[in-house]
Known about the structure:
A: mainly beta, 7-stranded mixed sheet, 4-stranded antiparallel sheet, globular, B: 6-stranded mixed sheet
Amino acid sequence: DAGITQSPRHKVTETGTPVTLRCHQTENHRYMYWYRQDPGHGLRLIHYSYGVKDTDKGEVSDGYSVSRSKTEDFLLTLESATSSQTSVYFCAIMRGTGELFFGEGSRLTVL
Amino acid sequence: DQQVKQNSPSLSVQEGRISILNCDYTNSMFDYFLWYKKYPAEGPTFLISISSIKDKNEDGRFTVFLNKSAKHLSLHIVPSQPGDSAVYFCAASMDSNYQLIWGAGTKLIIKP
Lengths: 111, 112
């Protein structure tokens, strides 16, 4: 019972290249989130979605875009990756009030 | 400006003893608080939560205490077990707001 799957789990890319991370849920939840986790910062919200084609920015949205064309999929795109975007990215769904369920993470390295 | 602070980056506790993890917040509008646990190479998992109308919530070995006047919450783990070694995050949210504000995390190490 994965609930959420993220792909790819690991990616190494070069500065300036586009990158798309995919989050797929099997639970039909309305709210989906993309976070990044960096040492000393905890989890920081990049973007979130409250329905198909309904998205909003989080606290660290610069350099990222998202799309949600289906309930089950939430895509995070780095149009032109930079080294500062090297991080671990987590997708999450809202299951109960304020309770997030996370995917296993996608580790991105930008050289 | 960190609204949720975990001032201890790490904590080491003997197996069988009590682990106490602390979290402070600055925004008095927060009304729901959560603790998550994270193992390496895995996503965070929900542990326990507390609403601002309560001052204590207990679930097995885990108890969360909320002191609204001090804007402080703590997570108590009794007794501590080796499997409790992980990074613990506290998070907070406001009424009708589906965003969580996170602390930086505390790495708990349980010594055998």
